[in-house]
Amino acid sequence: MKYYSTNKKVSGVSLQDAVVKGLAEDKGLFMPDSIKVLPQTFFDNIENLSFQEMAYTVAEAFFGDDVEAEALKKIVYNTLNFDVPLVYVADNIYSLELYHGPTLAFKDVGGRFMSRLLNYFIQKESKTNVNVLVATSGDTGSAVANGFLGVEGIHVYVLYPKGLVSPIQECQFTTLGQNITALEVDGTFDDCQALVKSAFMDAELNAAMKLTSANSINVARFLPQSFYYFYAYAQLKKLGKEENLVMCVPSGNFGNITGGLFAKRMGLPVKRFIAANNRNDIFLQYLQSGVYKPRPSVSTIANAMDVGDPSNFARVLDLFDGSHDAIVSEISGVSYNDLQIAETLKACYAETGYLLDPHGACGYRALKEGLEANETGVFLETAHPAKFLETVENIIGEKVEIPMKLQEFMKGEKKSLPLTKDFESFKSYLLSLKA
Ligand SMILES: *Cc1c(COP(=O)(O)O)cnc(C)c1O
After folding, report:
1. pTM, two decimal places
2. More confident residue, 22 or 386
3. DSSP code of 126?
4. Fewest CB within a 10 Å sphere: which of 56, 256, 416, 419?
5. What is residue 17's three-state secondary structure?
6. CATH code for the part of the protein at 83-104+225-402
7. Which residues' Cβ are closer than 6 Å to ligand 1?
8. What value does the mean pLDDT take over residues 282-287?
C-alpha cells in the first residue's frame, strides 16, 4: 500500500517512510491510497472472533502488503493484550471502555502498535536508531513512553510543560528510565510542540540523527484505532443490539473518530457518528457554518480535548473529498462546557452507579440528548476516571479508587531533565547525545 499526503503534493510513499517521517514533506497527513472493504463473511462471523483475531483481519487490510503475516500478527496480538469491555450504562447507551491498557487511556492502542511496527522496520531494514520526539499535555506522553518502553533501537524524548501536567500523568512517563527520557520544559504545551516542530525542520539535526514523531498524525498511531470499533459491533451483535448503531467519540485532535470513519469505509455497519467536544468546538462550528476556523484552545476539565486546531481534520476532509454536505450527513457534533460535563458525570454516577471520566461524560451526554428510539448508542470511554482524580472526586464528593497499575507508577522515582523553551539549547542537547 502506498500513502499520499492530504496536501496532495506528495504521493507513492511506502508505509515505512510514512511511519518514520510522520508528517509528509508538504506538511500534509498521510492517507492510504485505498481502503479495502472487508468481505461479508467477516461480518457474518464477527461475533465468533476474538478481539485479536478481528483486529488482525483489519490490520492485514492496511498493512498486509508491507509487513509479513507472522510479524504483523505478533504486532497486533502484542498490542492488544488487554480487554476492551462494552458496558451497559442506561437507556440503550453502552460504554466502550478503552482504558484497560498500561496507562489507562485509549492512546495505549496506537502507542503500542506504532512502537512495535517501527521496531519491525528498524530490525528489518534501516538498522539505525530512531529518536521519537513527542510533546504532551499529559496522556500522549504516557501512552507513547509506555508503548516504546524497552523497544530496541528507539529512544523516546517526552517534552512536557513544567507544572502543567497532573502528578499522576507526570509519573507515567518520568519514572520509566531505560530508553525513555522526560524533558521538563519551562513553558507551555504549545512551547513543547514548537520545540518538536522546529527539531523536525532543522536540517543540521536531521542530518545528525533520525527523528520521528509519535503524535496521532502518524498513520501507525491512528489506523489501529479502527480495531475497537469492530469489537464494539461484535459485542453488540452477540446481544442482538447491532442495528442502527451510533458511535459517539469524545474528540480533540480527531484521530480516534477518524479510526471509526475508516472502519465504516471498510464495511462496518455504523449508522452515524457524533463528535463530542468540550468548549473547544471548532469542529461543531465547521459543521454548522461550513467554514473551518481554528482558534487558540481554552482549558477545560476534559483537558485531553483542549485542541484549537485538530490535526486530523485534514483527514476527515480528505475522506469526504472536502464535501461539507457529505460530512454533515454522517457526523454530527456537540459541545459542552465544564459545568455541563460535571453535571453529567455526577448525575450518571448517582442514577446508574457508572463512573465516567470528564471526556466520556461528553460522549454519554451527547447520546442521552441525541439518541433516537430505534438506535443503539456506544460512546468511547477514553480514559479511566482515576486519571483525573481531583476533578472527579470533587464532582462526586467521594474518593475514587486508584487502579493498581496507576499506583505502581506513583511509587517510582521521578527523573526528568529541565529544559528552557529556547530551541538552540534543545538542539545542542540533542546533538550532544550523538557524541
Ligand atoms: C487524546 C484523548 C482524547 C481525544 O482523542 P483524539 O483522537 O485526539 O480526538 C479524548 N479523551 C482522552 C482521555 C484522551 O487522552
Report:
1. 0.94
2. 386
3. I
4. 416
5. helix
6. 3.40.50.1100
7. 105, 107, 139, 216, 250-256, 304-305, 359, 382-383
8. 98
